[in-house]
Design brief:
164 residues, alpha+beta, Nucleoside Triphosphate Pyrophosphohydrolase, four-stranded mixed β-sheet, NUDIX domain-containing protein, NUDIX_hydrolase-like_dom_sf, NUDIX_hydrolase_dom, hydrolase, NUDIX_hydrolase_CS
Length: 164
Amino acid sequence: MKLGPVPLPTLPTPVLRVAYRYGHHLARGYWYVRRPEVYGVKCVLRDERGHVLLVRHTYGERDVWGLPGGGRHADEPAELTATREVLEEVGAEVTVWVELGSIYSDALHKKDTVTVLLGDWPGGELLLQDSELAEAAWFARDALPTRLAFETEFAVERLDALGH
């Protein structure tokens, strides 16, 4: 299945960033009241040097570095979610994934199961969805930022344990 680029809204980026921030606050309220069971993916992308791509979002904990990814649609395989999210967030088409494991959290009052997948960067320029992502950068595994999302810490531990 060939995926095409996802059309982005035509609102100015600063307006969309504010919408993401307020939307995230509204979602947190919903999660607190409803405690939904949700599923998502986080994507470890490696370049030819073995560096990993980390991103900072424009909402939530904006000073924390994490992995690209997002929520799974109903009955959507994790690999397809990963392919869709990476294309949407950083503009790359990655279709081969290796599952590194899953992690569960209820830190934000939702029952969140995240599948972490590993894929190789296909080359080319990063094309950030700048309304959702403030920044993206490649990091050597021995030079990661100090503020990492818990899924990122899990992913790095799994990479090390599996010898990737």
